[in-house]
Amino acid sequence: MTTKSRADRASATALPESELALFRRQQAFAPSLRSTTARERIDKLERLGAALRARQREIERAAAEDFGKPPEEVALSELFPVLHEIAHAKRHLKKWMKPRRVPPTMAMFGTRAEVRYVPRGVCLIVSPWNYPFNLSFGPLVSAIAAGNTAILKPSELTPSCSRLIAAIVADTFAPDEVAVVEGNAEVASRLLALPFNHIFFTGSTTVGRIVMKAAAEHLSSVTLELGGKSPFIVDASADLDRTVRNLVGTKFANKGQTCVAPDLVYVHESVREDFLARLKARIAHVYGADAQAQRASPDYARVVNTRHFERVKGLLDDALARGARLVAGGDTDAASRFIAPTVLTDLAPGSRILEEEIFGPLLPVIGYRNLDAVIREIDARPTPLALYVFGRDRKRIEKVLAGTVSGGSCVNHSVVHFLHGNLPFGGLNASGIGNAHGVHGFRAFSHERAVLVDRFSIAHLLFPPYTPRVKALIRMTARYFT
């Protein structure tokens, strides 16, 4: 395959071009990628990795401009996952691409069979604003590894990040292979109207339904990474210091704007007050003891925009109006889109914070005595993207895992399962469809093609005309192989 010079690629990307024309170019180019080798695909991944490393400071500045994300958090949560995904794919791609032999069933004796991984074709990756680089380039790694072309649509809510994503892609790929289309929801709707072979969407459950309806028009396959209220269960046997360390570190990173962040904490009544005291102390240690210190913290991001600030503040105001007890935080500042790390307990039934996905730095804590009641409550809600359980009692931990359903789960940790390259990452029903990361991402962007080669099978003996002899063979076959 001929690779265009950087100047040619940038020039081509700058041309005014409709979404349909860009799609058609990729559609025409996609068949040539089916025969690419692992080495050719790895070369592309290495180019992407080099581009991301070279522009790390620009990436950090863009994330700071859009929502005040600390540079260390950008390195850890935006760049590291993508570079890790690239490294993992480079090590294993040759094995992933190799046809997988499968043994014959008894009825297929005399044949040889295998599964081949075929690129799906032209793919659309629609990414959200909360982790714009991670959730744009992570799926792109899988799409490239599987041999596809791709159009990326980053979120318009983080414009600095979106512009930089477009620049990185234009510098690294020819537009007939990978391109970025920027714009608002109207642009996204136009893209969704095109007959993509696969759509990978990360975002809210509400928009996920829209994406799935659009995909159905063309029978496009989809991967939906959505969200939900991820529960965090604290057993009476839990190491409380370890628990609050993990909770604060994963809940309030990125201002709580994380799809797998703990959204609802259930803590056993026997340790609830001790847990709350330690949680408050840990927040003070990490972000500062009061609102003034927290506003000045270089480690605390901001809510992405005014609309989301008002939505999260509305959840807080509703909970307090219904009599919730404020354990920590509660301070807000609209001008800087600041909401303090906030912990609430004694929440009234019907509070919005108990029903809606928070996607912000509010943490509702519910005491419990009966673990079965907690499991029933979790099962009564839409399936969450993640579930976390902390404790040292293996029997109760297994009871939670066996009695609940979630996209993924962690025991005595939270969120980090996202980074495990050998684990599937994905949701179920309201929290998503399909999996991502590692070989699971490669397969999401691949069609598993069945290939059967006849060697000396006897299936032809069952063909018509249905003479008495053939009928007898059919009856014997049905008895023997079923």
UniProtKB/TrEMBL annotation:
One of its GO terms (cellular component) is cytoplasm. Gene3D superfamilies: Aldehyde Dehydrogenase, Chain A, domain 1 (3.40.605.10), Aldehyde Dehydrogenase, Chain A, domain 2 (3.40.309.10). One of its GO terms (biological process) is aldehyde metabolic process. GO terms for molecular function: aldehyde dehydrogenase (NAD+) activity. Residues 26-450 form the Aldehyde dehydrogenase domain. Keywords: NAD, Oxidoreductase. Coiled coil: none annotated. The active site is at 225, 259. Pfam families: Aldedh. PANTHER family: ALDEHYDE DEHYDROGENASE, ALDEHYDE DEHYDROGENASE ALDX-RELATED. Belongs to the aldehyde dehydrogenase family. This is Aldehyde dehydrogenase. It comes from Zeimonas arvi. The lineage of its organism: Bacteria, Pseudomonadati, Pseudomonadota, Betaproteobacteria, Burkholderiales.
